[in-house]
Amino acid sequence: MAEPISTSGEPARIGSSNHRAGRYAPSPSGALHIGNLRTALLAWAFARAEGRPFVVRVEDIDDYKTRDFGLQQLEDLAALGLDWDGEVVWSSYRHAHYQQAIEQLTSAGLTYPCYCSRKDILEAPRAPHDPPGTYPGTCANLTEDERAERQATRDRPPAIRVRTNRAQVEVTDRLHPPQVQVLDDVVIQRFDGTPAYNLTVVVDDHLDGVGQVVRGDDLLPVTGRQIWLARHLGIPVPEYAHVPLVLNQAGQRLAKRDGAVTLADRLALGETVGDVIAAMATSLHHSPTRTAQAFLDAFNPTLLPRTPWVFA
């Protein structure tokens, strides 16, 4: 077992191994829409119903995202009646921890530079059963001379991938049947030096003492990657509950471009926070309670739907 990454300088957030925290971790790319708020309500309810601490983390790794959006998101969560333990965590302060994790994986011989563009990957031959975008391992076994040649033809540094050797990882989930995911070689640092999501989320959850991850089921397909990374970093794997998404009328994942889908939008239409919570509760097969606390008091995970909610 690898030595776990250091948590030096990080605040303690858990009371015991049996009560590791739940969390909600939005990316500050804009105002939260109804789908985001619904997932936040569920993450909070799962944690609070089981006596877990609840952590809010703003995943502001990318420079093009702004702190202002993150602050707006926190205001929306508070307006909904959600509370959290400790200070809000901002991922942008954790680059040293991400670099430490990359160095740990590299020291274990698990990383290599990748010079491929997205176009290269899409056009590369791959196994018939692999979905588009699966990395075929083009740069996995290059010689030093071949790497130098590839670098000479590129105008940017390489990305860094981990060598998974097509590992098969079993993923268990509270809302989905167990599944085995076959991994390709995952990017952990992009060519611009930014640590990649699959790495940062694993490191962040460890630093925040997270033992329960409740999030949209669009992230279920990458969960095996995160389990693999956690195991090779020597840190605990949380339990997962991937909840159904909210879709628009066209059957696509809800987005802010779909119209009046944020809390501010709904309030501008004359609805109240209670109306919004009641709609979300009804979509989750619960009584149309009008406060977050009332939803929590009645919360029963066994009632939750397994199919998306089409938001009108």
Question: Could you explain the architecture of this structure?
Answer:
- There is one protein chain.
- It contains ten helices and twelve strands.
- It is of the alpha/beta class and 312 residues long.
- Strand 1 (21-24), helix 1 and strand 2 (54-58) form a beta-alpha-beta unit.
- The relative contact order is 0.18.
- It has helices at 34-49, 67-80, 95-107, 118-123, 144-152, 197-207, 223-233, 263-268, 273-283, 292-297, and strands at residues 21-24, 54-58, 89-90, 111-114, 159-162, 168-171, 179-182, 187-189, 210-216, 239-243, 246-247, 309-310.
- The strands form four sheets. A five-stranded parallel β-sheet has the order 3-2-1-9-10. A three-stranded antiparallel β-sheet has the order 4-5-8.
Topology:
Layout: E1 21-24, H1 34-49, E2 54-58, H2 67-80, E3 89-90, H3 95-107, E4 111-114, H4 118-123, H5 144-152, E5 159-162, E6 168-171, E7 179-182, E8 187-189, H6 197-207, E9 210-216, H7 223-233, E10 239-243, E11 246-247, H8 263-268, H9 273-283, H10 292-297, E12 309-310
Parallel strand pairs: 1-2, 1-9, 2-3, 9-10, 11-12
Antiparallel strand pairs: 4-5, 5-8, 6-7
